[in-house]
Amino acid sequence: ESGLRCEPGETYIMNVMVSGHPYWVPVYQGFKQAAEAFGCETIFSGTPDYDITKQIASFEQDMVKQPAGILVHPMQSDPFIEPINRAIENGTEIVTFAADSPKSNRTAYITSDNLAEAKFAADEIVKQIGESGQYAVLENPGQSNHDLRVTALIDYMEANYPEMKLVGRQATNQDSTAAYRATASILQANPGLGAIWIPEAGSAEGAVAAILEAKSDVLVMHADITPATLEHIKAGNIHMALNPNQGMQGFMGFLATFMASHSDVFDPFNDYKVSGYNPVQIPFVDNGFAVITKANADSFDLNTYMEGRDPS
Amino acid sequence: MEKSINLAPPATQGMGALKKLLRMRETGLILIILALCIGMSFASPYFLTWVNIRAMVMAFAVEGIVVVGMTILLISGGIDLSVGSVTALAMVIAGWLFLQGIDPWVASLISIAACTGIGAFMGFFVTRVGLHHFIVSLAVMVIARGACLLFTGGRPIGLFTLPAEFKFIGQGAIGPIPLVIIIFLIVVLAFDFMLRRTTAFRKVFYTGSNEKAAAYSGIRTKKVIFLTTTLCSALCGVAGIIYMARFGSAQPTFGLGMELNVIAAAVIGGASLNGGSGTIFGAILGAVLLSVVSSSLALLDVSVYWQDIIRGSILLAAVSIDHYLNKRRR
Amino acid sequence: MEKSINLAPPATQGMGALKKLLRMRETGLILIILALCIGMSFASPYFLTWVNIRAMVMAFAVEGIVVVGMTILLISGGIDLSVGSVTALAMVIAGWLFLQGIDPWVASLISIAACTGIGAFMGFFVTRVGLHHFIVSLAVMVIARGACLLFTGGRPIGLFTLPAEFKFIGQGAIGPIPLVIIIFLIVVLAFDFMLRRTTAFRKVFYTGSNEKAAAYSGIRTKKVIFLTTTLCSALCGVAGIIYMARFGSAQPTFGLGMELNVIAAAVIGGASLNGGSGTIFGAILGAVLLSVVSSSLALLDVSVYWQDIIRGSILLAAVSIDHYLNKRRR
Amino acid sequence: MQDDVILNISDLHKSFGAVRALRGVNFELRRGEIHALAGENGAGKSTLMNIIDGILQPDSGIICWNGTPVSIASPTEAQKLGIGLVHQEIALCPDVSVAENIFMSATNISRRLLMDYRALEDRARSILGQLADIDPAMLVRDLPISHQQLVEIAKALTLDCKVLILDEPTAALTEREAQILFSIMRRLADQGISIIYISHRMVEIFDNCDRVTVFRDGQYITTQTVADIAPSDVVNAMVGRVVDTLYPDKMRPQDGASDRTPPILDVRNLSEAQRFRDISFQLKRGEVLGLAGLIGAGRSEIVKGICQLEGDVSGDISLNGTPLSIRTYGDSIRAGMVYLSEDRKGDGVFLDMSIAENISALDLGLVGNRVGTIDAARETDLAETLAAKLNIKYGRLSDPVSSLSGGNQQKVAIAKMLSVDPKLIFLDEPTRGVDVGAKAEIHRILRDLARSGVGIVVISSELPELIGVCDRVLVVREGQISGEVSGEDMTEENIMHLASVLDAADAQLQSA
Ligand SMILES: Nc1ncnc2c1ncn2[C@@H]1O[C@H](COP(=O)(O)OP(=O)(O)OP(=O)(O)O)[C@@H](O)[C@H]1O
Ligand SMILES: Nc1ncnc2c1ncn2[C@@H]1O[C@H](COP(=O)(O)OP(=O)(O)OP(=O)(O)O)[C@@H](O)[C@H]1O
Ligand SMILES: [Mg+2]
Ligand SMILES: [Mg+2]
Fold it and tell me: Which is one GO molecular function term here (chain D) (predicted)?
């Protein structure tokens, strides 16, 4: 019988590293909601650790269960090439999200456009403090999406607003105490600082504490959101946060995986039959991002959202 | 200072205060920190400003409370890898209870009590079952982190609604001095005094120096180890509550890697990993050194890619110089 | 098994092999692991599949080589917190050299040599300057991580162009068995044999058991400690190269927190943090235990919010049971 | 009479696994008596004392304190009853000052909140003053082992106890400190304190004790009033047969070398910055040389300096006529020169390693084959042979040395030295804690070695031993050789004379 429905027991898995991280929660909700619509079963899997070997082991264990597809966040791109290709050979379709493994045979990649976020943030900063001024960034070297948010903003500033001067650049690695210390020092060294861009929310909490203590009126912009930064937005301590549209990421992620697994409904005008690849190829999907300000902050309380929902 | 009384041989009791100072274990560290600060005050005009100093102290004050607990535990011959997770758990439990409608002060007390219980749990496994501190606290580090996730579903808890009197602990100031720093100083001075001067805390040294000899002298060494283990976790609880009041949130991922930082501070300050020696004063100087280096690198806007290399090298150099100075003095 | 020959008292040489087995330090751990595996094979039909077993072994095989180095270092009385960063640095240096156009095999040798140099650097500070392993390796951990960032600018190095013969080290298989597992087994068996049976490695035990008595037996203890420190870093270098071949990339953030895992494996396997005792076989069993627990939880789809709690509890329970069994056997 | 019994032990058993350390022993201690406990190494003396002090628990048996049965669960409870114990093995806290170590028990039960270091040091100084010149503010880790032993004794003297147990306290003390200790013991006994005194030196027992109890192989043999019994009876009761405790014969003319063969050891102008200066002496073939001196005179330092174990020494050393240019102790061992440490626990044995592994530590080449692997059978053989030769009492060769009695640990340390067939052995307090029978055996082995051409240098604080064993004794005072005695002149008086500072002027006269 045809139609886009799951067979009984047809299962889709979402695999991540640092699986306790709250970022995944709304992503998985989106994934699950889409799956329910198609009558499919889902599993949230991965490793609680920040450890590539453990994530690969968990990914390979997922394969043992012969799922129809896996939506994976590969901690590093190249190490996943071989496991992803092996999974596809075994009949499990693979889609990546939030981080890619472009050289593998995965059929789709869903992500936020970190460049777009950075561009938006840069324009907003300039809009608020003017075309000539001082700004600083905190960063988290080694984590690709955070790196991109920072480097793209700096490049964009250099290209478009040459009068904007980068006066501080500190690694804080999502640690609020380190962010507190770094921000306090940057504020000290640069009394004329106008704005600060932070690629994640953990560091933002520490940075705001330092700014409040110094009674400075630096404009704070950051990506992602936590309850504490949300409150700071409401209180006006943080100007704005850019939050990737996680629900859409999971929802689109499921659709792409599901479609890859049900590619028999699709017979495109190309060489897939002779070359043997999956006809449902989606090189890049932008899940978009939300701009959180005082005005709409109330809608972004994850705890409120999760009330009555099952996280796993 | 008290220690020099202890260590000064009779012949030198007439010596000047300067000489006494030079005999102290901590003098080397003080000199190194002073040298760093003097260098920095030339390198950056902002270094010696009150605001910068305040920020530097604030950056290690709360962790300093944990350093106190760790130092005492190290002296007794133990070690605790769970400090980071237990501090996070303290925030999470208190925050969660508060959101359930419990008075924040009561919630904090319950949370500190829970952390004390965790310490007692570890103490039980160490003293009764006979396992090593390292492995017990490693397991508890994982369990406590798991409990943080369970309480919060992995999501930070926003506690913006904490009453202002409560937030005052972490954000308030008495005159120009933040309350956090005052609490920190009280804890440090109190424990430093107790460790040097009270009969009860001397038993910690005896136990750590030679557990068997201490037991032969009638000291209930297991009790001592149980108590130091418990105390360390209790102080993590206190630190967690202060962090919560300061940041107005409870983060389940808080304090990752804190244990190494805290142990490093104590060891730089002269605590022995084999037990039996160490001072609170020295350990705090160790924390100050680490903090001054980090702050200086940030203040000078050293490239991120160089910071770790410079930080590690300064640490190694400082410890080597300190070791050399101590060896020479003896 | 070798050990029982070594340790078997004359009177018991007629005992059955079973009794000999029961006398071994490692028997408790083996029983615990077997119990876990039997439980798991009922709980999940996938557990005993070849793919799952392969995945579990692959998850710890390369780290197992580091465990070997750490165990020997622990026996000699040292410890090394820098293993994670040094492993990452090995990948990064070799990868970077390869991208500069150097033959990957030569690049690997240079990289392993560099890691050996780092070990010698640490050994120098420990044996000549007289610092504690903990603080030296902590500083080197930070420095090596900084060097990784500096070489890569914080971004992973893609090494897709590595020649197939080179990738074979990490991705190839001989028959059904991945080469990685074969290398791991060779390293483990070789070092286990040497540690139990050779005169050279016996000195490691003497040194760790009582450094002074070893010196009073004519053993150049500083040289021994220098060499074990160097060996540990060299094995990190080897592990890093294998990882690089396996993943086809070099990641500057690789191996964060690896040190605790590796030390835990050795300690679970009976290595003493005070030096003087431990076996490679036991340490590898420790690594197996940790890996089986993690893999089982993943396989059973246990909620992430429970995984850490269960993992820590199993660790604590296993170590307690093992301790109890060992105590009773004696 | 019965009222006078403060401690009564009957039918006490204690096993460690297969080792039955105590098999139904009885022991009775009266108020105000000094009661000696004698027995071979491993007879169970220390085990019984550990049980009385609550460190170990008996398997069965009754302990009566003032007539009422008690169970002593911990040292704390023993302390409450009024039992104090000086351990055979030194157990002090190395990172803590001498004064704090001495008053550790007092600190523990004190109800005072704060430490008064000044008072502590003053009191420690007054107690130490009678024993030796030790600075109470020093850390114990900086003290030589003999001073640590004195601190242990000082520690016991501060206890406010009714029963004081001294487990071989004089093993490393010289006559002078020992005599001070005995006078203190008698004073305490006069005050009504009961003392259990364990020693392998019969003279001490017969000069100072009221009664003596003998154990053999964990069994109670007899209790006698010292006045009613002779030393040889005690020894016979200990060993279960008649033993010859006489010292072996001295050097015979044919043992010595002709004038043409060089001396085994020739030391000239050996100096070290702080500890000793201008040491010159020779060790002739066939001779057993002794080094005497007060505690802290520097005997150990000189010998360690010769072996390159410690210090930065200058001077010339030749072994069998060839000048030595050794830089490490390893070189010294390869040259055939070995040193038996006075601190067996600190640097003599590996406590947590097996007996066999301990014995082969000095030269693994002996138990290894050409490819560098250890031949387990040869290791066992070597250990078995030496253990039999030295009469070591052990369960299995794979047992850790920590499970042996003190005297047997000492024998393991000696076995380790003998394993390499050395050309020259320095023995620092070689029979520390070794029982009479084994001691005589060791003395005989030393003499045999000397006859076969091995150089033997003995440092001992027990003058009768030096006089009995050595052919010639050098006396060391304050880092210098203050004189030499041999033959008829080798008397305790002469040696003490040369050793003590007070008679420095006399000594110079004599050596001139
Ligand atoms: N912890 C232990 N484990 C196993 N055996 C032990 C232990 N302690 C003592 N023993 C054994 O108990 C026996 C009695 O030992 P103990 O120390 O009481 O002898 P001792 O009479 O004090 O001898 P010494 O004169 O050499 O000090 C010895 O055979 C010894 O090996
Ligand atoms: N580690 C050390 N640091 C400082 N002084 C030391 C050290 N070791 C020994 N000494 C000092 O060197 C001197 C000689 O000590 P040594 O142990 O050689 O004496 P000894 O003649 O062998 O007597 P005994 O061994 O009976 O105590 C003593 O005054 C001692 O205090
Ligand atoms: Mg004894
Ligand atoms: Mg001596």
Answer: ATP hydrolysis activity
